[in-house]
Design a protein that fits this description.
single chain, alpha/beta, Nucleotidyltransferase, domain 5, 7-stranded mixed beta sheet, 5-stranded mixed beta sheet, 13 helices, globular
């Protein structure tokens, strides 16, 4: 099948679109990436989404407008992806949508909400759409996250055997998450903020979206006292499986935790401190697993200040791009959702209970029909390996 995957992270800057040809070959999923592109959100829709994120109070009218706006822009992105990346032909679209709220209470995920009405995608493309990819895992007692664990475990099992020890995949989005393969049952969890607090600090001080190139963080100095306050966040001490998001690390988080500290008025030093926080919490989370190498992806991997801090903190384990395992780093999330859609279409569970905390592995998402009736294949046996062409 040719599957188009759609993704948008917590920065809400663009829709990631990736197309891939996927084939089941015995116990192996063969994934041939066909291309990837970014489609920026319209300025008005991005402002509406950012304005609705926690701790904002919203009306049902706002929710309906955002759900429709996201659905229409995801639909346009999918149609463009089919034309530009897949030669005008695809079989399935898998859309993660945009997370507006991830409800975690008492260490358990109680619910999760991703908006982006899939009917608009089905109508625009004529293709069936797999969406709402997290909710079933939450219903089975899991966190619905990190969904990347299904890709990471299939991709990195043989690599862990080859290096003779555990290997970790690290994704640096708004939130950082890790998957560890080769240390018994695989584990995966959110370690804490990656870009979320960095971006919030820049936006509050300058109005810019981010510290482009990590230039400000690189010339700043880590404030040890501020770092200690930030590191005292109770989330970091929780045992996995666990998940978090902007419900905790919201734009007001820094002012609550660092109230009265002058680092709030020294932007470069604040960003250097936050880069060190990201690196330190990732390294602390991985330390018990004694990983042999860490394969990184996500927007934070383009921030030299964060990468330098990670390399220092993770040593002697090397930090390498996920492309070393054959997977395009910038397209990982969208390709992940293409893989999940493909597995769901073939009746294969797309979650890993030891990673999400669910009681059982579950089929992910719901399917919206395209222009014709649904004709699903016979369920396939679960694969054990992912090979990237």
């Amino acid at each position: 099948m040719i599957v188009v995957g759609l993704s948008s992270g917590t920065s809400v800057d663009a829709i990631d679109v990736a197309a891939a040809e996927l084939t089941l070959d015995g116990e192996t999923v063969v994934l041939d990436p066909l291309g990837r592109r970014e489609v920026p959100f319209s300025a008005d829709l991005r402002a509406d989404v950012l304005g609705a994120l926690p701790p904002a109070a919203v009306t049902l009218e706002q929710v309906a407008r955002i759900d429709t706006g996201l659905g229409r822009e995801f639909a346009a992105a999918a149609a463009a992806g089919i034309d530009e990346l897949a030669g005008g032909r695809a079989d399935l679209v898998a859309s993660h949508g945009q997370t507006l709220f991830h409800w975690v209470e008492g260490g358990r995920a109680r619910g999760t909400l991703q908006l982006g009405q899939p009917a608009w995608i089905a109508e625009a493309t004529g293709l069936p759409v797999v969406s709402d990819l997290r909710a079933r895992d939450v219903a089975a007692g899991g966190h619905g996250a990190p969904l990347a664990s299904v890709l990471d475990t299939l991709l990195l099992g043989e690599r862990a055997a080859g290096v003779g020890g555990p290997v970790a995949a690290l994704n640096l989005g708004g939130i950082a998450n890790v998957t560890v393969v080769g240390a018994g049952d695989p584990v995966a969890f959110d370690t804490g903020p990656a870009n979320a607090l960095l971006d919030a600090a820049v936006r509050a001080a300058t109005g810019d979206a981010q510290d482009t190139g990590g230039l400000r963080a690189a010339r700043g100095t880590v404030d040890a006292q501020a770092l200690a306050r930030l590191h005292a966040e109770p989330y970091y001490a929780l045992r996995p499986p666990k998940s978090t998001g902007k419900e905790l690390f919201d734009p007001g988080y820094l002012h609550r935790v660092l109230a009265g500290h002058d680092v709030l008025h020294r932007l470069d030093d604040l960003l250097a401190t936050l880069a060190e926080l990201t690196a330190g919490t990732v390294a602390d989370a991985l330390r018990p697993y004694r990983v042999r190498e860490v394969l990184v992806s996500g927007g934070g991997a383009r921030n030299p200040a964060v990468v330098a801090a990670l390399e220092r903190r993770l040593a002697p384990a090397p930090l390498r791009p996920i492309s070393d395992a054959g997977l395009p780093g910038d397209g990982k999330e969208a390709l992940l959702f293409a893989l999940i859609g493909f597995l769901t279409w073939h009746g294969v569970p797309a979650t890993v209970p030891s990673c999400t905390g669910a009681r059982v592995a579950t089929l992910a998402g719901r399917i919206s029909p395209g222009a014709g009736p649904l004709r699903l294949p016979e369920p396939a046996p679960p694969p054990s390996r992912l090979r990237i062409v």
